[in-house]
Amino acid sequence: MREISDKKEIGLIVSYYLSRCNDKAVHALGYKNFTEAFKGIGDLINENPNNIKNMRDEFDPYFDNGRKGWYQRGLRASRQKIFDEFAGVTDADLERIVKKLLSIAKGGANLENNEILKDLRALIRQSTMHYSEDFVWQDVELTNEFKEAYEAYLEGIKWRIEYYNATSVITTPTSKNIFVPNQWFVIASYAVGVYSELYRYKTYFEKIANINGQRTDSYAKSLRDDTASVDKDLFIKSGERILHAEYSDDEQRIKRGAGRIWRFVTDYSWWSGQKTVDRGDFYLSVVLNMLNLVNASQGYVGDIVNAYGSDKNLKEITKKLERFTTNLQGQTYDIEIVSEDKNTSIVCEPESGYNTSTDKPHRISISAKSIEKLGRK
């Protein structure tokens, strides 16, 4: 037995089933045709119907279903994992597994949408997987709307930017230059959801510290390093009071929210934190690890994430790739998150070769060719 809770993996399993069993699968799921199936399945798991179709097409070259699919390339690691895992499963068992996955998704019992504060471990892991699966390593063209919005943000902090074909040059108030490939602006967008949720947690922690007359720096250190010395009941009750003022309709959600704030400040392994939550850059290592970037050379991506998360206009623009690039499409940070608590995960058979690790995206570097382009717009 193994747990399946990630939306993207559910989509891959269903797409594998559609490719392997073809029209039989469409009718078994209650749809008239593939177009209806793509839309219906997409609605159930909050996935773009085109993505369901594309994932099915990736499996098509390996089945005798009358479609060529994406025969030009081999299966990516995440697709190969699904292919290998279910190769020995009968059609009947595969149908049962897919129906169970979609049934639970339809019920929505394990989705984090309605929680006051999201499960940070689930949010970070599933956002990382989404980035790993969806980010396309290619040249990026930025829209004028985005360029103007980002330039306005930088002007507000006394920085300047010049845009070139594939690279931008940012000048700090001390006249130092930062060379930024356009891909960094895309990469950063995938971490906005994680950044924003971490800051929501931090804001509630600061409110709890304030009503209890605590300094945030010393309180944060005590909570992390000497938890036993802190009055947990007082902390939880303070959190519940604050949340109740905003969410007075659901006591259970309030209790779960207050409990998660406590976990946030006492269990840094839950969200892979390093610096104490009172620090302004406490989120940076989490974001860079999520995006698989090297702090020394690519730390400015964290600043871009901060810009997106703190500027309302940029945050809205970067929610969808087609809004801030001219040649990419898809959702970035605003995705469904499924709780990874043991009592809410989807459990399916068969059990074979499950690995919670994800494919790592490429590391980003500025090529000599990109730097040469700085000489021309």
Q: Shape, please? A: globular
- Beta-strand fraction estimate: 5-15%
Helix count equals 18
Tell me the distance between the termini: 56 Å
- List the secondary-structure elements in sequence, H or E: EHHHHHHHEEEHHHHHHHHHHEH
Residue-averaged pLDDT: 85
Tell me the helix content: 40-55%
For the largest beta-sheet, the strand count, sense and barrel status come to:
3 strands, antiparallel
Low-confidence stretches: 342-377
Number of E strands: 5
Structural class label: mainly alpha
Number of domains: 2
Order of strands across the main sheet? 2-3-4
Radius of gyration: 23 Å
Tell me what the structure shows:
This protein has 377 residues and is mainly α. The chain has two domains: 2-107, no CATH class; 112-340, no CATH class. Helix content is 55%, strand content 5%. The protein contains 18 helices and five strands. It has helices at 7-28, 34-45, 49-59, 77-86, 91-107, 120-134, 144-156, 182-189, 192-211, 216-225, 232-246, 251-266, 284-290, 295-298, 300-310, 312-317, 321-324, 368-372; strands at 2-4, 160-163, 167-171, 177-181, 346-348. The strands form two sheets. Strands 2-3-4 form a three-stranded antiparallel beta sheet. A hairpin with a 3-residue loop joins strand 2 (160-163) and strand 3. Residues 342-377 have low confidence and may be disordered.
